[in-house]
Amino acid sequence: MIEAVGLTKRFGAKTAVDQLSFQVRPGHVTGFLGPNGSGKSTTMRMILGLDRPTSGHVTINGMPFRDLPNAQRNVGALLDAKAVHGGRRARTHLLSIAQLSGIPEKRVDEVLGVVGLQDVARQRAKGFSLGMGQRLGIATALLGDPKVLLFDEPVNGLDPEGILWVRNLMKQLAAEGRTVFVSSHLMSEMALTADHLIVIGRGRLLADMGTQEFITRNSAGFARVRAAGTGPDGRNTLGTALTKAGGRVLQEPDGALRVTGLELPVISDVAHEAGVRLWELSPHRASLEEAYMRMTQSSVEYTSSEDPRAELWEPEPLTVPEWEDGPAAPEVPRTGFFAPPPPGAGGAPFLMPSDPGKLASAAGNTSPNQPEESR
Amino acid sequence: MTGLPTTGPMTSGGSSTSAPASGGSTPGGTTTNAAEKAGYSSPLPSPRPHLGHALASEWTKMTSVRSTMWTLSLLVATVVGIGLLLIANTNNEDYDRIPFTTPAIFGLLIGQLSVMVLGVLTMTSEHGTGLIRTTFTAAPERHRVLTAKYIVFSLTAFLVTAASVFVVTLAATIVHSGAGAGRHGSSEWTGALLGSLYVTLLGVLALALGALLRHAAGAIATMIGVVTLPPVIGAVLNIWEAGKSAGETLLQYNAPVALMQLFGLTSNDGGLNAVPGDTAQMTLVLLVTGTAVAASYVVVGRRDI
User: Fold this and answer.
1) pLDDT at position A249, please?
2) What is the pTM of this model?
3) Domains in chain A, start-ordered, CATH in brackets?
4) Crossing angle of helices B131-138/B102-129, nearest 10°?
């Protein structure tokens, strides 16, 4: 159990972590998300007693990290895979860390086996690839067989097999009743690994909830419906009927319809009543990535001048108000993976606010003007 | 899940992200409640870590990198190499006025740089690679680690230095103790041991500087300055009447002069009037090194890394 209360860290005028309070519970993989520079690593360093909080405190199983009787046996951490002396052999590196806490030497060989480095145990760490470095870092974290594990970007540089291995390892460690706290930028990976998420932006807590709940609350799903036949007739009939039924209908370039605001059975019923056969009726769940992007867009510190998020701000170009002439309707970009926003209250089309801050204030859990203040 | 989410992405976000309040929501994990309640308990022993553990760790660290081997071989090579060369090119009569430890001093004046470099690297190699975070995460009692570093380094440096000096002195004694060599007492050996201790303390000072500065190049440059600049500055100050007394002091109290004096060289030649005693020189280096070591404990204990 990791518990942070009012954790704050300032570097000069810049506030890296701002009044952060959260709990990481045992038995779950807790994901730690946030844009670059949002304070993830600083938070992890404060948990590990490497940085002193400006105010607030963080405890591990009720005790500050530096007061733990045998820190390595209680907490294992991977902060930086390159934090190894390149001239030292992998096994010696692990041995020197193990000896610090009186961990028996056979445990070193054990963890080397766990991470699959037994064959290169006697090679110097300098020659290790990024992936091997990550494995060595994970081995270091596992040395003390600790109850609490922190991993900062553990899958960086790993191949797909390695990523799968890390995912299973995290889940297994959590299933053994340990506290597992993982930060990552790879949303798809987090969606598969973590069952709880803590999201921060600009050092502030944005969300602390289950992964599924996070996706549901912060993103839009839609249904793709395709009327039978290639002509516009069926499509138009269906579109009109669905709009009347309270759904919001947009047209995709290939003739399929994106419907939001109606459950799949309702869409089927409406189509049946309108006498339209369907070739496709498929649910599309939003990804964690989309949910995350929407949640953190106002908290991103470093953005490219060509921001792919810009399309989120465009007023809805896909609306098809009339069903007389389908081909005239503007097309949905094929490559975009962002779902159109669902209708707001009262069936009126929901338009993204043009000012990111306004949206953040609606999304944030704190008072409306905080994202600007924290800057 | 076939249902479409009917809530908007952001419109309902205001209420959905009341984070700490929603913390109680059950994550969709596969874990059983039992595992969560019991927590994880490990079969490994969990002793309270003490200095001995840290000493073992530091010894492993020191013996497992090549820079240790290189710097120490360089030390041995310069002291023994130059020493044997001098022994070969002197005769018994030369040792009438100088102690048998003399051949070792010239190599040691160069070799002390190796000791300093090793001292600096003992600390900065951890900072340079980021290993220090791993170390201090595994052992948050930072003073325990720092103490182990000081102990392991100073013992290693002292033993290697003293052994090199011993080899040279022994060789000089064996080769040149014949007729005409004069009388030689055990005080020469004590002086050589004190000299080795002096060099070790310079190395400890280097380690402390490494801990304070965290950069190998900066700390090594500082140490070279500490050792080589005082004689130069003293000589420069001596030119002016106003700086004469300060210059004299600097010329008497600096590392190379102190080392030669401890080896029993300067006390005999009378070149400097009112030569300070061995005790004064040792006190000075102990004070400087002690201050740096104390500062390193304070800084390392509090610093964010």
Assistant:
1) 86
2) 0.78
3) 2-216 (3.40.50.300), 220-373 (no CATH)
4) 80
Strand-pairing partners, residue A249, are A259
Cβ distance B256 to B173 under 8 Å? no
Shortest CA distance to A62 belongs to which of A175, A148, A172, A136? A148
Do B64 and A363 make contact, defined as CB atoms within 8 angstroms?
no
Count of all residues that appear for chain A in the document: 375
Residue B74 token pair? 């360089």
pLDDT in tens, B87-108: 999 888 888 888 899 999 999 9
- According to DSSP, residue B165 is labeled H
Nearest chain A residue to B22, by CA: A209
Distance from CA of A357 to the nearest CA of B (A): 12
CB contact under 8 Å between B11 and A345, yes or no, is yes
Q: How far apart are CA B267 and CA B254, in angstroms?
A: 15
Query: For position A251, what pLDDT does the model report?
Result: 83
- 8 Å CB contact between B97 and B169: no
Strands of chain A (E only): list them: 2-11, 14-24, 29-33, 55-60, 75-78, 148-152, 179-183, 196-201, 204-210, 222-227, 248-251, 257-260, 278-284
| Cα dihedral sign, A324-A326-A331-A334 | positive
Residues constituting chain B: 305
